[in-house]
User: What shape does this take?
Amino acid sequence: MFAGKTWWITGASSGIGAALAEALAKENARLILSGRNVEALNALASCCPAGALVLPFEATDYARLPALIEQAWSWNGRVDGLINNAGISQRSMAIDTVFDVYRRIVDIDLMAPIALTQALLPRMAAAGGGDIVAISSVAGIAGPPLRSAYSAAKAGLIGYCDSVRAETAHLGMRVLVVAPGSVRTNVSKNALDANAQTRGFSDSVIDNGMAPDVAAGRILDALRRGERELILAEGMELEMARLRRADPNALFDLMAKLVAGGYAKQLGAEKK
Assistant: This one.
């Protein structure tokens, strides 16, 4: 289902996005690679035997979307799959967090993928369908501490995708929501703190998380199986997602206990 198909990946220059690009390249997919790090995107493109189009842009540059959609679509005459992966996280207590954190994270993690999907969806449906993949998060299901803005955006992305899936299945569209837990990327290092500044250091749980190539492999497997949701997590993070649906009160108590036990201090997010 990947060979010869055109897949568009946002946030492709690092982390899960780069790993997905590499995995799809091995499947002989044609890739449209978007992000802000042009050098990294070009390096990825050089490793794509079926061909790649580097299409760098800022995720929230909505004014450019019509031109970008036209360029992406005309490259091979269609786009078969879109992976909304670009995003930014947070590490701060809500009570300490300035509003700009919420505005920026919701804009990047929720409004940007909605804008791109909305712009591309009519063409994909008219061409007989395709795949939309949204990289959400376990945080969008379970709402863990220090991620109130991130959780809000990722939960919104799940809700949006669930509606789009229901509305477009008869048009040949398939929608997969991926909810990763800890994956070994720079997501924590690049997260915003309470004052909307880049955090600059990582968490041990992220540093010891799932390898990006393993995550990418599981995502491609989920696409092959036609899955509609993939909770890409292990251990406690997987249990958190399951508890939110099976026994939410148990999860709420667990999260409150985590904070009372000094979780913010452990992650360097305690107000000074």
